[in-house]
Amino acid sequence: MFFRTYKYIKTKRCDFYNYFDKFVFIILEQMKKNIAIVMGGYSSEVNISLKSGNVVYNHLDSEKYTLFRVCILKEKWVVLDDSDSEYPVNKIDFSFILNDKKIVFDCVFNAIHGVPGENGMLLAYFDLIYIKHTSAPFYQMALTFNKRDTLSIVKEYGIKTATSVYLNQGNPLDSNQIIRKVGLPCFVKPNNAGSSFGISKVHTEQELLPAIEKAYKEDSAILIESFLDGVEVSVGVIQYEDALKVLPITEIVSENDFFDYEAKYEGKSQEITPARITEEERIKVEITAKKVYSILNMSGFSRSEFILVDGEPYFIEMNTVPGLTEESILPQQALAAGISLRALFDSAIVRSLGSSK
C-alpha cells in the first residue's frame, strides 16, 4: 500500500512531491537493519581480522543495511565511523551513542579470527543479550576451535586423521616416546590458535623441545601430529541461500616447508582453485567435508583443511571464521563458484536475521 501510494504521487507530480520523496527516504532509512561488523580480537590474529572486517564493511550493501565497524580489542570495545572516530560500546547491551541517540544492532557479522570471536566466548555473550549473529552457536564454535576435541569427535565417525599426541603445559615430556608414536617429521601446533601462529615442522628430536616452547607461547595446550605426505587442499562448506553448499576446492602449494604464516599471508604459496586433483579425489573431499560439517552440527561459514594421501582425504582442522579478504581462500572459492563477496556476505546476514538462534 505504501509503495503504491508513493508511485501514484510521483505519477501525478503533486505539489508536495519533493517533501514526500524526503519522507520516503526517511522511512526507508528507518527500515534498514543495523549491522555490526565485529573485528579485531584478543589473539595474534588481530591484524588479519581487522583486514577481514574492513573487506566485509566495504562489500556489504550500504543501501540495504546501516553498517557499523566495531573493534573488539583487549583494551577497548569501540565503534568506528568513516573518519575513524571512536564511540565506546556499552557492554551491557552492546549499544553505543551517536549524535545523542542510542544505536542498537539487529545482527552482528562476526569477522574475529581467534579469541573471542572464533572460540565461542563472544557468541555466548550475544546469545545472552539476544543479538543474532552470522556464526554457528557458541558451543560449536568452542568445539571446532579446540583441535584435539574436534579430532576426537570426527574420528568416531570414521574420518581419517593424523596420529597425534596432546600435551598440557607442565606435563612431563618424553621426546623419545612422542617420536615413537608420531614419527619424524612431525608438526607441533597450539591446540587453540589459528593462522599458523606457533606452528613448527620438526625434522629432528633436537628440534622438538624448541617447537613445543614456541607453541606454548600461543596456548597452554598443544598438539603434536604425524606428518602426512600428500596434497594439501582446503574446502569451504557454507550455508548459502538456505542450502548447504560445498565450494570449489583449493590446492595449497607452499614455497616454504609447510603452509605457515608467511605462506598464507605474504605470498609464499600458490592457492590453486579448482585444485589439480582427480574427479574421484574431488568427490571424496567434498563428501568428507560435508560429513564433518554435519557431524560437528555446524552452521554459517567454514573452511576445512585436508591432506590427500594415496587419494584418501585426512582431516586436519576446521576454521569457522576463515579469512575474508579478497585474497583469502574462502572468498576465492566463492568467486570460483560464481558468488560475489557482496552476495556471500549478504547471505550470511539474511540467514541470521531469519534464524531463531
Model description:
It contains 12 helices and 18 strands. The chain folds into 3 domains: 2-137, Rossmann fold, CATH 3.40.50; 143-160 and 229-354, D-amino Acid Aminotransferase, Chain A, domain 1 (2-Layer Sandwich), CATH 3.30.470.20; 164-226, Dna Ligase, domain 1 (2-Layer Sandwich). The strands form 4 sheets. The protein has a 6-stranded mixed β-sheet with strand order 4-3-2-1-7-8, sandwiched between helices. Strands 13, 14, 15, 16, 17 and 18 form a 6-stranded antiparallel β-sheet that branches. The chain has a 4-stranded antiparallel β-sheet with strand order 9-12-10-11. Residues 19-29 and 259-266 have low confidence and may be disordered. The chain has 357 residues and is an alpha+beta fold.
